[in-house]
Amino acid sequence: MTFRKLLFILLLLSFGCIDNFPIEDNEIKPQPVIEGLITNEPGSSFVRVSTTASLGSNSTNNSLSSGAVITVTDNNGIITPFCEKQEGVYKPEQELFAGTVGMEYTLRIVLADDRIFESTAEKLQKPLIVDSVLVEFEPTLIEGTEQVQGNHRFFATVSSDQQDEPFFFRTSTLGIAQVAGDIQNPPPFQCLTGEFCVEFCWSFRKPIDQNIRIGSSRNTVNNTTTIEVGNQIYDFNSFYFMEVTVYSLNKAGFNFWQSLVDQQGIKGSIFDPQISDLADLNIVDLETNIPVKGHFSASGVSKGSIFFNRGVSAGFNTAIPEVQFTCTEAWPNSTLEIPPQFE
Questions:
Q1: Domains in the chain, please, with CATH?
Q2: Cα distance between residue 287 and residue 114, in whole Å
Q3: Model pLDDT for residues 222-249, shown as the tens digit of each residue
Q4: Of 116, 66, 118, 117, nearest to 87 (Cα)?
Q5: pLDDT tens track for 291-311
Q6: How is 21-50 classified by DSSP, letter by letter?
């Protein structure tokens, strides 16, 4: 195109002579991100629905999706409705619902905008075995000082009683830390001696860290494998309870979580906005037959735990923080009520 022609077109545009080229303004619906889980443990099944920001949106954050109609159907045709317990989080209408090992389950979601999504039928995998849970202290020096700090690293040994068959799993963790505070202004008669009053409370930490932890029978010895399941900073020298939950996976489920680990550097969750091109997506848009981001799993559950003294494990003690009125001021997600694990 010559300069003269280009100048002519620009002049036409500037005088409004070309007015019949409308820009399409079709609404782009945000795409869902779905995580669904059926287990054989009563009360632990759930579906979580989020939406990603669409192209051109000013927002890059995800928002939980309310108002969906969700059901799970087994291969006997029994339908279990899921109710929205909190924004975007759905749980079985029967609170103690539990899946059955060997049964197949299909997830169906109808969003508030009438789009319908459905999963493939997933067989509930047999639970694996948590043989042991171990803790190891990893000391480090605070930069520029000789003062030692560090983390407690947790490991679980997992096995299967199905010899010579590959197994796959992912883990989640719960930590409960006994912590304390030196109260500067205790209520009358709470402390009989001393300038400070030491009060204990219990801090709940779930998960222990944000890493996605997955494992398999690759490189196993005697059909067992040991993996790191959590990592927690040492911040007080009393007792700590850690529980690991192992969710058995099929090969496709393992591939999905492995691709997420690879993309996110072993960090994050499936609701992070940058996920793309994940492996073995098993939920599709019924209108387009295109897979959506996320996964639906049917997992057997097994658990293991450890209870230990953090100061003894680390080999040194940490200072008790000072608080104005109560121990819970210093520690997030804490309570004065003694958990059953510490009674």
A1: 32-123 (2.60.40), 129-275+301-342 (no CATH)
A2: 11
A3: 789 999 999 999 988 999 999 999 999 9
A4: 66
A5: 998 899 999 999 999 999 999
A6: -PPP----PPPEEEEEEEESSTT--EEEEE
